[in-house]
């Protein structure tokens, strides 16, 4: 098996371009190579990976399934290599440019990331953030492959392995009910909680959240079960539902307080104990010592401490 350290990075770039162009001559033009030089590169790639890479069809040359997978993964590797080459030993947020790809739920985005963005506006005008929804089963792979830089969330069963991680903030759980709820007064009793219909995050296409699993586990410990009246695929929808119905929702306290500022809902303590949730930030070793990433992670922790 070939040693990765003996592989010419230029050859890997040729693979990426060949898959994109699906044509040896066009790939050669993009790489400022001769056609014979690109043909030679294709022959070397076929030997290296034991795969045709490009095959002739009635529609012209097409990449194989393995070539497409290889090109995608090699693209992430080359991007990481570019970052290493371009990385600096220091980062000046006032003048330097940087971008960060995050994995974060709606809850994290609305309570934490919005405040991070607010801080960036005045201190780091050339820093950009991109956020995507988490898939707990894919987070490790996404970080390993460099698709995302940082994952932020509540993952009590997440296997960190060789990834780096730290707690950003802790939160408790509370209930929101509509302001003029007909049966729930100033205090939410256990009887009220069990008698109410509940709105919660989760649907056929989105698994139950770790937070709701925590709530249901606490109830099972008491021999109780809540009555679910509505499952929604978007966490941010819950305050709208509660404000316009007799349903109640159990959500993180920071998000509950923010919801009360924007909707006709009240925040009430849970009538039974549930351990606090610890929101963590996870990242790969490739960015651990990068000055820009270190600065950004420190900023996230600083904002988290203020929640």
TrEMBL record:
GO terms for molecular function: DNA binding; DNA-binding transcription factor activity. Residues 7-64 form the HTH lysR-type domain. InterPro entries: LysR-type_TF, LysR_HTH_N, LysR_subst-bd, WH-like_DNA-bd_sf, WH_DNA-bd_sf, YidZ_PBP2. CDD domains: PBP2_Nitroaromatics_like (cd08417). Keywords: DNA-binding, Transcription, Transcription regulation. The keyword NADP does not apply. Gene3D superfamilies: Periplasmic binding protein-like II, Winged helix-like DNA-binding domain superfamily/Winged helix DNA-binding domain. Belongs to the LysR transcriptional regulatory family. This is HTH lysR-type domain-containing protein.
């Amino acid at each position: 098996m070939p040693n990765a350290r003996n592989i010419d990075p230029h050859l890997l770039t040729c693979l990426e371009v060949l898959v994109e162009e699906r044509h040896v001559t066009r790939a050669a033009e993009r790489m400022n190579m001769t056609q014979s030089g690109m043909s030679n590169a294709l022959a070397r790639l076929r030997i290296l990976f034991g795969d045709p890479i490009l095959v002739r069809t009635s529609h012209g040359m097409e990449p194989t399934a393995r070539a497409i997978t290889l090109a995608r993964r090699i693209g992430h590797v080359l991007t990481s290599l570019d970052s290493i080459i371009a990385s600096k030993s220091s980062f000046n947020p006032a003048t330097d440019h940087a971008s960060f790809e995050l994995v974060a739920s709606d809850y994290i985005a609305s309570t934490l990331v919005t405040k991070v963005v607010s801080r960036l506006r005045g201190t780091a005008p050339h820093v950009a953030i991109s956020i995507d929804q988490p898939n707990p089963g894919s987070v490790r792979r996404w970080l390993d492959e460099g698709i995302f830089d940082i994952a932020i969330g509540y993952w009590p069963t997440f296997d960190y392995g060789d990834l780096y991680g730290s707690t950003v903030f802790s939160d408790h759980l509370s209930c929101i009910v509509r302001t003029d709820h007909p049966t729930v007064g100033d205090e939410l009793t256990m009887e009220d909680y069990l008698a109410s219909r509940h709105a919660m995050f989760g649907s056929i296409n989105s698994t139950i959240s770790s937070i709701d699993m925590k709530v249901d586990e606490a109830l099972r410990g008491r021999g109780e079960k809540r009555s679910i009246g509505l499952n929604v695929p978007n966490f941010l929808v819950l305050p709208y539902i509660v404000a316009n119905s007799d349903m109640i929702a159990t959500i993180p306290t920071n998000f509950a307080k923010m919801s009360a500022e924007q909707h006709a809902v009240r925040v009430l303590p849970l009538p039974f104990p549930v351990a606090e949730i610890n929101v963590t930030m996870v990242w790969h070793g490739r960015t651990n010592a990068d000055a820009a990433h270190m600065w950004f992670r420190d900023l996230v922790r600083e904002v988290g401490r203020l929640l």
